[in-house]
């Protein structure tokens, strides 16, 4: 390390030299004849927090999800019970092989159509509930209801499948025991 020589610091040749009297961070007055610059501000749409809109969208999504998940599952389960009860005897007496005879469902074709209609209605209404729920979340219109709608509508097919399968099996067991 070298010893200080006491000579003032001289910038290297070609370096930028600050103007005389420059004080870093100091505020300067505008030149005569010019006003102070207007402060830059963001438009209110950027700086303002998102306002809460109407609460209708989230509630519609939630009701649609409940209809899709719970309502159609109940209708499908009742149809499954009736199908199992109606074909229990034929199902129990027919051989179990690769060629299933679909004609045993003909006495309960009305219930089969009801179950299928419940399935497709739940599918369409559930998809609408998911879309409306996402829109409610994005637009901040009952965000909690929108989140609940998306979750309930996503779980709806599982609720439908479990409910229908359990009640078809229960109906088959009850239909088989009635005959035997």
Structural class: mainly alpha
Give the termini separation. 107 Å
> Helix tally?
4
Please give the number of β-strands. Answer: 0
As a whole number of angstroms, the C-alpha radius of gyration is 37 Å
Mean pLDDT: 83
| Morphology call | elongated
What is the helix/strand order? HHHH
Overall helicity: 55-70%
Q: Strand-residue fraction? A: under 5%
Main sheet summary: none
Stretches where pLDDT falls below 50 for ≥5 residues? Answer: none
Task: Briefly characterize the structure.
The chain is mainly alpha-helical and 180 residues long. The chain is built from four helices and no strands.
Describe the structure.
The chain is mainly alpha-helical. It has a domain at 57-94 and 104-179. Helix content is 61%, strand content 0%. It has 4 helices and no strands. It has helices at 44-47, 56-93, 109-139, 143-179. Helix 2 (56-93) packs parallel to helix 4 and helix 3 packs antiparallel against helix 4.
């Amino acid at each position: 390390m070298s010893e200080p020589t006491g000579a003032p610091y001289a910038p290297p040749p070609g370096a930028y030299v600050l103007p005389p009297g420059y004080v870093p961070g100091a505020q300067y007055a505008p030149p005569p004849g010019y006003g102070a610059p207007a402060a830059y501000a963001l438009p209110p749409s950027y700086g303002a927090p998102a306002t809460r809109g109407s609460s209708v969208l989230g509630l519609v999504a939630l009701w649609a999800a409940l209809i899709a998940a719970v309502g159609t599952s109940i209708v499908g389960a009742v149809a499954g019970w009736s199908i199992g009860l109606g074909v229990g005897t034929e199902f129990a007496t027919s051989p179990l092989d690769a060629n299933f005879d679909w004609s045993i469902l003909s006495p309960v074709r009305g219930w089969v159509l009801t179950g299928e209609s419940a399935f497709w209605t739940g599918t369409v209404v559930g998809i609408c509930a998911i879309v409306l729920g996402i829109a409610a979340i994005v637009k901040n219109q009952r965000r909690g209801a929108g989140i609940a709608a998306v979750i309930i509508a996503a779980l709806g097919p599982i609720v439908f499948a479990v409910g229908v399968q359990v009640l078809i099996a229960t109906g088959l067991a009850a239909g088989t025991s009635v005959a035997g």
